[in-house]
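Support case: AR6 complex. Customer-provided input:
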Amino acid sequence: MLVNICGCKLNLVQGDITEQQVDAIVNAANSSLAGGGGVDGAIHSAGGPAIMAETDEKYPDGCPTGKAVVSTAGHLSAKYVFHAVGPVWRGGKEGEPVQLQSAYRKCLQLAVKHECESIAFPALSAGAFGYPLDLAANVAIKTVTDFQKWHKAPAEVRFVLFTEGIYGAFARSLETQIELP
Ligand code: AR6
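Agent response - structure generated as follows:
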C-alpha cells in the first residue's frame, strides 16, 4: 500500500526488513544494544559482526529508550542501520506512547541528517516488547505522516511488516488516519 504524503512516499509492504533496498534500515534494539531475537537477530545475522563491533565501540553505554543511534549496515545493502529502542509495554500508563513516538522521530531525524532518501522501519515494540499491535501501528503511522508533512522528508518511508496480520493492522491505521483518494 503506497500513499503520497505532501510529495513523499509512505509505503507499507509485507516482508523481511533485511532484504530491503533502502538507504537506512531501522533495528528494533534494546537499551544495552546487546543483540537479541526478532528484527535485531535478523539484522545482526544478515549484516555480520561489523555492526556489533561498531555499536560496542561507539555506544558502550547503550542507547536509552525512545532514542536511536547509527552504525554501518555491514553486509546489508543499506548504507546505515539505525538502532532504535522502543518501550517495553507496561500497560500504557508509563509513558510508552511518547517513548514509541520518540524512537520513530529520532530515526526520521537521523535519516534527514545522513541524507537518506529512503528508510525502512519494522513495527517497533510490537514483538518481544509486547506493545499492542493496533496501538503501536497508530503511533507509528501518526509519527511518520506528521514528520513527512512538516519536513517533506524522507522521500520514502517504508514499513516492512513481517506477517499478513501486522500488515493489516498498519493498513487499517493508515486508512483511518489519512484521506485516501
Ligand atoms: N523483518 C521485519 N519484521 C520482523 C522481522 C524481520 N526480519 N522479524 C520480526 N519482525 P521485535 P521489539 C517483526 O521482537 O518488540 C529483540 O530481542 C515482529 O513480528 O523484533 O521492539 C531485541 O534485542 C514484530 O512485529 O522487536 C529487543 O530486546 C516487530 O518486527 C527486543 O527484541 C518487532 O518485533 C525488541 O522488541
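Residues 16-18, 28-30, 35-40, 42, 86, 122-129, 160, 162, 166 surround AR6 (CB under 6 Å).

Case will auto-close in a few days if no follow-up is received.
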